[in-house]
């Protein structure tokens, strides 16, 4: 990896963002560089704990994460983000804040059906029962990105984590 860029994983809940971004962050650290993982789940417990999941709040959450990335870059730390980033307008905003050349967008592609089957935090089940409102894929939208909206796509459906890790390692070598 030549230049310090933000690596931004986006996709549905349960698609594998946290799993893969953690592996990616370890790869960077093993390479002797410093990275910092910004996971939507964690950010929402602190930096964004006053925000919900309506369209405006998601936009504000994503904006805050992008601004933190900008700061990390000034101290030469590679920001790794794992956030749903559901709308094209969210993705456009990140590009506006960070600049296209300073950003690698990775779409973690997995069907809603499979994410719901995995349901690692039982959130889909709660959303189906109406216990969680505005849940991405169930009661709120996810705008599937066109190919021009990302640099890489990792399909996690029908793949073992080990297979996805191999794909990530290949991707790492391209950066
Ligand atoms: N309504 C609703 N919709 C989607 N997700 C929800 C919701 N409520 C709580 N959660 C939990 O919050 C995590 C997503 O936060 P993000 O910051 O990544 O979302 S966003 O980019 O602002 O849309 C998401 O984490 P992941 O499952 O890792 O994606 C969930 O654990
Ligand atoms: N190929 C794969 N890549 C990533 N995760 C996978 C894969 N196959 C199955 N999984 C499982 O899917 C779930 C993804 O959860 P997580 O990484 O928290 O997703 P997200 O952060 O997108 O919500 C985990 O339980 C993980 O073990």
From TrEMBL:
What's its catalytic activity?
A: adenosine 5'-phosphosulfate + ATP = 3'-phosphoadenylyl sulfate + ADP + H(+)
Per UniProt, which keywords does this protein have? ATP-binding, Kinase, Nucleotide-binding, Transferase
Enzyme Commission number, as recorded: 2.7.1.25
Q: Which InterPro entries does this UniProt record tie to the protein?
A: APS, APS_kinase_dom, P-loop_NTPase, Sulf_AdTrans/APS_kinase
| GO CC terms in record | cytoplasm
Gene Ontology MF, one: sulfate adenylyltransferase (ATP) activity
Name the pathway it acts in: Sulfur metabolism; hydrogen sulfide biosynthesis; sulfite from sulfate: step 2/3
Q: Which residues form the APS kinase domain?
A: 5-150
Q: EC class of this enzyme?
A: transferase
Q: Name one GO biological process term.
A: sulfate assimilation, phosphoadenylyl sulfate reduction by phosphoadenylyl-sulfate reductase (thioredoxin)
Q: Specify the superkingdom.
A: Bacteria
Role summary: Catalyzes the synthesis of activated sulfate.
Tell me which PANTHER family the record gives: SULFATE ADENYLYLTRANSFERASE
Q: Which family does it belong to?
A: Belongs to the APS kinase family.
Would you tell me the protein name for this molecule?
A: Adenylyl-sulfate kinase
**Organism source for this protein?**
Flagellimonas meridianipacifica
């Amino acid at each position: 990896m030549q230049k310090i860029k933000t690596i931004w994983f986006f996709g549905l809940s349960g698609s594998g963002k946290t799993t893969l971004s953690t592996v990616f962050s370890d790869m960077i650290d093993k390479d002797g560089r410093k990275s910092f993982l910004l996971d939507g789940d964690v950010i929402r417990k602190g930096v964004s704990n006053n925000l919900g999941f309506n369209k405006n709040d998601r936009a504000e959450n994503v904006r805050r994460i992008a601004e933190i990335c900008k700061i990390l870059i000034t101290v030469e730390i590679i920001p790794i983000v794992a956030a749903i980033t559901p709308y094209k307008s969210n993705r456009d905003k990140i590009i506006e804040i960070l600049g296209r050349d300073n950003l690698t967008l990775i779409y973690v592609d997995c069907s809603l059906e499979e994410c719901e089957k995995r349901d690692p935090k039982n959130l889909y089940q709660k959303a189906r029962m109406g216990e969680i409102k505005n849940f991405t894929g169930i009661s709120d939208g996810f705008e599937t990105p066109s190919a021009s909206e990302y640099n890489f796509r990792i399909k996690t459906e029908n793949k073992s984590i080990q297979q996805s890790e191999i794909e990530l390692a290949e991707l790492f070598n391209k950066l």
